[in-house]
TrEMBL record:
One of its GO terms (molecular function) is DNA binding. Keywords: DNA-binding, Transcription, Transcription regulation. Residues 9-76 form the HTH gntR-type domain. Signal peptide: none annotated. It comes from the Bacteria. This is HTH gntR-type domain-containing protein. Pfam families: FCD, GntR.
Length: 221
């Protein structure tokens, strides 16, 4: 049976996605101006789809459009960074509590195994692989929450923080600290302790204050 071709991503959406990738990767630093003409030349399009893409990014709070001044990559101040991280911590805490209540036995086993894998990577000092395992562990908990709205809100907060959280694991000892913070989360989720899981996850996201403060200070104007 002949399959129908999938519709192509429209040009503004494609441009939005590519600019968003550059922001998350740090290619476009916070506060950098985005020139419509330069972007139009880069993507070989007129300025109209570029403007539409920038409006999409503004709706996601990844760029700031200042009338008569231009468009700039989102650059929160220290207080806003703190607020965003607190918000993300609360959201992931909700996800952890729900996961503790809703995860299947198979998912709990998978979570425990993934934690052990991450622990071995942290012990070996393998930062790239640890970061990947860390992302899978958090994603499994979010998936286990069974709440699509919480997932969407977490993704939104992460997008806004992506440019600032890229170097969290560069801090000396952070791999082992992160892994140690996972232990009470995984234990509580697997035991069905919703409140314990939420509390441990909030502490982990904020990093008990240290990684959190370091992040804010590193990005202070």
């Amino acid at each position: 049976m002949e399959q129908k071709a999938q519709p192509a991503v429209n040009t503004p959406e494609r441009i939005r996605g590519l600019i968003e990738q550059d922001i998350a990767a740090g290619v476009l630093a916070p506060g950098v101006p985005l020139d419509e003409n330069a972007l139009a030349a880069r993507f070989e399009v007129s300025r109209t789809p570029v403007r539409e893409a920038l409006l999409m990014l503004a709706a996601r709070k990844l760029v700031t459009i200042v009338p008569r001044a231009g468009t700039f990559v989102y650059k929160p101040g220290p207080a806003e960074l703190i607020a965003l991280l607190e918000y993300l911590g609360e959201l992931e805490g909700v996800a952890a509590r729900l996961a503790a209540q809703r995860m299947s036995a198979a998912q709990r086993e998978q979570l425990a195994a993934l934690h052990q894998e991450a622990a071995a990577l942290a012990q070996a000092g393998d930062q790239p692989q640890y970061e990947a395992a860390n992302a899978r562990l958090h994603e499994l908990i979010i998936q286990g929450s069974g709440n699509a709205i919480v997932r969407d809100e977490i993704e939104d907060a992460r997008r806004r923080l992506a440019n600032f959280r890229r170097h969290v694991f560069d801090q000396p000892g952070r791999l082992m600290t992160s892994c140690a913070e996972h232990e009470p989360i995984v234990r509580a989720v697997c035991a069905g302790d919703g409140e314990g899981a939420a509390r441990a996850m909030r502490d982990h996201i904020i990093g008990k204050g240290k990684a959190f403060a370091d992040l804010v200070l590193a990005n202070a104007p």
